[in-house]
Amino acid sequence: MPIEPRIAALDWPHITQELESHGAARTGPLLAPAECAALAALYGEAAGFRSRVVMARHGFGRGEYRYFAAPLPPLVAGLRAGLYPRLAPVANAWNAAMGLPRRFPPDLAAFTAECHAAGQAKPTPLLLRYGPGDYNCLHQDLYGDLAFPLQVAVLLSEPGRDFEGGEFVLTEQRPRMQSRAEVVPLRQGEGVVFAVHHRPVRGTRGTYRVNLRHGVSRLRAGQRFTLGVIFHDAA
Ligand SMILES: O=C(O)CCC(=O)C(=O)O
Ligand SMILES: [Fe+2]
Question: Where are any strands of DSSP class E within the chain?
Answer without folding.
Answer: 24-29, 49-54, 61-62, 64-68, 126-130, 135-139, 150-155, 163-165, 168-173, 180-184, 190-195, 198-203, 206-216, 219-222, 224-229
